Amino acid sequence: MVTIKQIADLCGVSRGTVDRVINERGNVKTETRDLVLNVIKKLEYRPNPAGKALSARKNNPVVGILIPAEGNPFFDDVIRGIKTAAEKYEIYGLNILFHTTRGYNIRAQLQILDELKNKINALIISPINDPLIINKINEFVDEGIFVVTLNNDADESHRHCYVGSNYVNGGETAGALLQMIAPPKANIGIIMGSSKILGHRQRLKGFEYSINKNNDFRIIDIQENDDDDICSYDKTREMIIRYPEINALFIVAAGVYGACRAVLSLNRQDNLTILAFDTVPTTIEMMKNHVIKAVIYQHPYRQGQRAMQIIFEYLVNGIDPDKTKHIMKNEIKILENL
């Protein structure tokens, strides 16, 4: 029987490239795709999913998932993408151990990682960017556990790959967009998620870089809300009362609904330009009520689905990721194109 490895050797490409051609997943040059398809046709290759499923089930592959989804509606679509992909792979005996946390508690994340360590073959994690978490990820990798960071990265870790958005670019995009839609002279208040999260810091850095090029735009204050709506309400309300000159608000991560409720409580919705991220139901509600002018969308469903697909390809097909970062495009959304 002809194997994917034999086809790859004949074509002078990797097994991953052959697998992408067979499963029509793109990212293959046209001439390479034509070559692979031609060899497949000549050799009369036929995939054997039943045999692959039987082999995978014998290995009992288990995937641990750890994400800070509690109280953060952004992760609803991430989880939906993970579960949709996982259901597709059930025939291969792929098992899931799902864990969620609220906020960014280092001790809670470490405790769950310790619980998962001897039970899993692979890990999908949205990590807190802390040396203790990074060291724990490195321990997993050293023991042969395949690790994918999802939505947020830990660049200094030895994780195998990252799936998510480009946070610096997201911040730069937000800064450029705000300069298009805000008043000519803008005093900006920033409600940030958490400085414990690498992506949040990168997004803020990108935003500041873009804004600092405009002498008519200045950042008045920055507050963290730990991605929590109640905290976001309190911090936003306090900021606007303390600095009434603020006429633009940038919400870096979650806590969007709480921040908008604070704006409404002060009746400032008509003279504040608000820019946020993601299209969760409460954010859409605020866009329809003309409280939020625009958001930047980072494809959460695709993030979850792609992370699970990478895990499957590694555990079942033995295919390493073809790149260390799988980036989803930052996409501007206004009310008319939701």
Describe the structure.
The protein starts with a helix and ends in a 5-residue tail after the last strand. It is α/β, with parallel strands linked by helices and 338 residues long. Residues 53-58 have low confidence and may be disordered. Helix 9 (198-211) links the parallel strand 6 and strand 7. The chain has helices at 4-11, 15-22, 30-43, 49-59, 74-88, 106-116, 131-142, 167-181, 198-211, 229-242, 256-265, 281-288, 300-315, and strands spanning 62-70, 95-102, 122-125, 146-150, 161-165, 186-192, 217-224, 248-251, 273-277, 294-297, 325-328, 331-333.
Which key features would you list for this structure?
13 helices; Rossmann fold; alpha/beta; 3 domains; 12 strands; 20% strand; 434 Repressor (Amino-terminal Domain); 338 residues; 6-stranded parallel sheet
Please describe the topology of this protein.
Blueprint (H helix, E strand, L loop, with lengths): L3 H8 L3 H8 L7 H14 L5 H11 L2 E9 L3 H15 L6 E8 L3 H11 L5 E4 L5 H12 L3 E5 L10 E5 L1 H15 L4 E7 L5 H14 L5 E8 L4 H14 L5 E4 L4 H10 L7 E5 L3 H8 L5 E4 L2 H16 L9 E4 L2 E3 L5
Parallel strand pairs: 1-2, 1-3, 3-4, 4-5, 5-11, 6-7, 6-8, 8-9, 9-10
Antiparallel strand pairs: 10-12
Helix pairs in contact: 1-2, 1-3, 5-13, 8-9, 10-11
Low-confidence stretches: 53-58
For the record, the CATH class of the largest domain is Alpha Beta
Q: State the helicity in percent bands.
A: 40-55%
The average pLDDT is: 92
What CATH architecture label of the largest domain applies? Answer: 3-Layer(aba) Sandwich
Alpha-beta classification: alpha/beta
Summed up, the helix count is 13
